[in-house]
Amino acid sequence: MTLIRRMARVALLAVLPLALAACGINTIPTQEEQAKAQWAEVQNQYQRRADLIPNLVATVKGYAAQESSVLIGVTQARANALQVRSDPGITQDPAAFQRYATAQNNLSLALAPLRVLQEAYPDLKSNENFMALQSQLEGTENRVAIARRDYNDAVRVYNTTLRTFPQVIWANTIHSSSKPMQLFQATSTAQSVPTVDFGPAPAGAAPGSPPPK
Questions:
Q1: Are 122 and 208 in contact (CB under 8 A)?
Q2: How far apart are CA 93 and CA 42, in angstroms?
Q3: Residue 178 has what DSSP assignment?
Q4: pLDDT confidence of residue 42
Q5: How far apart are CA 73 and CA 63, in angstroms?
Q6: Cα separation, 102 vs 211, whole angstroms
Q7: Are 59 and 130 in contact (CB under 8 A)?
Q8: CA atoms of 176 and 165, how far apart (whole Å)
Q9: pTM, whole model, 2 decimals?
Q10: Helix, strand or coil for residue 194?
Q11: Are 70 and 194 contacting, i.e. CB atoms less than 8 angstroms apart?
Q12: Most CB within 10 Å of its CB: which of 19, 29, 106, 158?
């Protein structure tokens, strides 16, 4: 009889992990890690954008120094975007996530005038370094958009899992520390075409030519 009980215990220990796996006990942590991995990609692309800005601003300054308000605005927006908290923990902190998203959106808006500066300053448009940086910035903005989309997709799957049966059982017991993650929201201002008013250049500085030495 004792031997039968031991065999039954061994069988139960062997079957229990398979039964739990079949019930999706690992689904929540797996999807949470996938969403965090997508968040890391969002961070990488935003950092790449931030790294491009100093060289872009320096190049523009050589041809359109009189547009100081634009350059200062970009520099300040970049500094603000780099100062806000960006660790994975903010994805489950609505207020911190909103601060991060707002800072990044503000930087996007500040960069908008730089995209059309070459129309007001033809010499800038012919500068190979500027055009290369512009191309890299545009490519990075596209990668940011893709990273945000992939992150949102992963978060939607994860958040849905937390609310649906049978995973909702694990969400309220074993995985009670796993909380819903925040989504990026599209903003109408970020999607609009920038309109920039380049006022008349200061006396002695003609548009399209570098500032006097």
A1: yes
A2: 17
A3: -
A4: 98
A5: 17
A6: 34
A7: yes
A8: 15
A9: 0.79
A10: coil
A11: no
A12: 158
